[in-house]
Amino acid sequence: MKSILLLGAIVLAVYVIYRVYRYQTLDDGLDQLIRKGAVILDVRTENEYKTGHIEGSVNISLGTLRERYIELNPEKTYITVCSHGLRSVKAENILKDRGFKHVHNGGAWSDLQGVIE
After folding, report:
1. What is the DSSP string of the chain?
2. 46 and 61 Cβ atoms separated by less than 8 Å
3. Residue 107 belongs to a domain with what CATH number?
4. How far is CA 109 from the centre of its chain?
5. Could you tell me if 94 and 66 are in contact, meaning their C-beta atoms sit under 8 angstroms apart?
6. How far apart are CA 35 and CA 55, in angstroms?
């Protein structure tokens, strides 16, 4: 019984840490940026993207972003999204390291879709 309670406590702690991390790394005002023309950059794989995505989003997987970032306009505003929010943080950092000034983490694509609907 103690091991079940301990496991439950660990799972709960991991979930809480994930949620706190997610909200700390998400940028505010994403819906306003989208209304102003920000591009949603979905960094999931092509197969993941095919299972569902935000209409009008651009798909460049995180694994190819270091080579394909040249396809993007550094003057535009980008909001990175993925399945859970971890890859979008990495993508945001990659683009900022390459001189992009207007990049924001949108977290999970499905969550962002709910915000903009």
Report:
1. -HHHHHHHHHHHHHHHHHHHHHHHHSPS-HHHHHHTTPEEEE-S-HHHHHT---TT-EE--HHHHHHHGGGS-TTS-EEEEESSSHHHHHHHHHHHHTT-SSEEEEEEHHHHHHHH-
2. yes
3. 3.40.250.10
4. 7
5. yes
6. 14
**Whole-number Å distance between alpha carbons of 42 and 96:** 16
Give the torsion sign (CA, 55, 98, 17, 8): positive
Question: In this predicted structure, what is the pLDDT of residue 93?
Answer: 96
Range of the domain at 22: 2-116
**Type of residue numbered 48:** E
pTM over 0.70: yes
Nearest Cα to Cα of residue 33 among 44, 41, 45? 41
Q: pLDDT by residue (tens digit) across 58-92?
A: 999 999 999 999 999 999 999 999 999 899 999 99
pLDDT class of 9 with cuts at 50, 70, 90: confident
Number of domains in the chain: 1
